[in-house]
Amino acid sequence: MQGVERKHATMSEKKMTSSRRHVLKSLILTIAAKWLDEEKAADIAAKEEYMTEHCVKPSMSGDQATLMEACKKLHTLLDKLDEERYDLLSKVGKADKEIEDLNIKLVDVRGVKKPALRKVRMSADAMLKALLGSKHSVNMDLRANLKQVKKEVKEEPQEAAGDWRKNVEDKADRKKMFEAT
Known about the structure:
Distance between the termini: 98 Å
Radius of gyration: 47 Å
InterPro entries: Troponin, Troponin_I, Troponin_sf
Keywords: Actin-binding, Muscle protein
Family: Belongs to the troponin I family.
Structural class: mainly alpha
Number of helices: 6
Pfam family, one: Troponin
Order of helices and strands: HHHHHH
Number of strands: 0
Protein name: Troponin I
């Protein structure tokens, strides 16, 4: 009896109404959306913190010559960064092209995997209609195009099949021939 009660208890636990499932799904989605919002806010705060640490605000005090010198330093730094970025982009492009070539070689070595064909029941007319489109209506009644061949009935002589006594007498004569020798 305990086994039956356990089975009944597990069956009732497994069943869930669609409304309950919908409520749980919506709760999970709202919690996930809240987590995503918190993660975005944390990312923004981390970016701001990084910028305040690494990018010190420039001091605007001083004459025009010091400001021009600071601008020239910034331009040289930007040029250097642009060169690095260009070099990295070219390396990435080269690596991507190499990966694509290797993938092509891999497909060539493995061979293209052909999908398993499914058996489709389709008449010849339906197949031609699918291939050629609905404009062409071709009748593929192959039996209509065949030639009619009439079978000739051979008449066998009934004498051989009908007169069995004669056959028996012939065999008896042969037996006498063998006995005579």
